[in-house]
């Protein structure tokens, strides 16, 4: 019985490759279909948002949210939860509602029920005029509720990146969000106090950890540490360590981008770093009427660089970035030329940033860093194997801010999306 003829064998063989191939094709189709579905969901959410009913009285709306919350099981993130090892980490931080907001009859419309979800409660009215809340859920790598302090935020965001500095990495941490949502509070510490305590911000906590690692073997005596602090307003760069001196961004023939002439401060203790941060932050806000007015339109970049004493060239570098207010890029009410131009620049830089992070997550050959000064200046940290990004998107809890909050969540969601694709490709 001569069953298996060469011809037949070949057929069998063909059939197997065929199924293999179709597996891949199916997988690609599935990813594509998921993407389409996501777009549809996004569009639905957008549509729904435009139906938000602002006429529902605050107390009624508040009662509905309270009732909804009562049936939730609240299990917040704690310091004992495991840290995830992610190339791109996207998390959300909700700040507490303020007395001022409550006095204005604003209500808290956000709930963070557990370590990775956030729920936005939107007031709606049905065709038959019944009022209800539409609860929109989002998921991220971590979500920090209003009771979380800077220590816990630091523990899950910048802390895991600090040890990588000593392995030659160039990680970046971004604070994103609407003005007043808590970016500077998270990065620098509480500026609202007269005697500002910088020791509680991510800048200081990072510096502290760097020196702890630096003084442990095998690192002891091996490195020098330098700080730089500058700000980007529109396409211009200003040195916060040098009275806002204008700095030039140059690109050499090897595509290496350099901020020329920026002041690099050699530091040996946490106290020195703190003094520098204090100086830089006061330079940043000087000459303007209020702290937020100016800082909401510029990105501030604080960097700590490790150089090997033997080579005196950059080994590892961590960049901590307090971004311009995300609402600025969307301000369409104004007709003021300067404000329009600022808004366009901010919009462009935040969109480019998102695309760069997405490309990084996809391990793309090409990173579109040329699209903005912000990403140009950070180019080196986006290139190569040793890049890591953490984005902390800050959100304000008030119902009057809910549209900005949804915009922030959508932006963060778009950055995060690639983590899903990444998993599928494995
Ligand atoms: P941004 O830098 O995003 O414009 P800020 O960091 O200046 O916002 O925060 C706005 C206000 O809210 C400040 O008065 C700040 O002290 C307060 N705030 C922000 N986040 C928190 C928080 N997690 N807990 C308590 N107060 C906060
Ligand atoms: Mg700020």
Automatic annotation (TrEMBL):
Name a biological process GO annotation: cell division
List where in the cell it is found: Cytoplasm, Cytoskeleton
Which amino acid positions bind ATP, per UniProt? 177-184
Keyword S-adenosyl-L-methionine included in the entry's annotation: no
Segments forming domain Kinesin motor: 87-418
User: What parts of the sequence cross the membrane?
Assistant: none
Main localization is cytoplasm
Spell out the GO cellular component terms annotated for this protein, sorted alphabetically and separated by semicolons.
Answer: microtubule
In its UniProt record, a GO molecular function of this protein is: microtubule motor activity
* Alphabetical keyword list: ATP-binding, Cell cycle, Cell division, Coiled coil, Cytoplasm, Cytoskeleton, Microtubule, Mitosis, Motor protein, Nucleotide-binding
- So what family is this one in? Belongs to the TRAFAC class myosin-kinesin ATPase superfamily. Kinesin family. KIN-13 subfamily.
Q: Tell me what this protein is called.
A: Kinesin-like protein
Q: Which organism is it from?
A: Rotaria socialis
Q: What is the lineage of its organism?
A: Eukaryota, Metazoa, Spiralia, Gnathifera, Rotifera
Q: Which residues of the full protein are shown?
A: 145 to 570 of 730
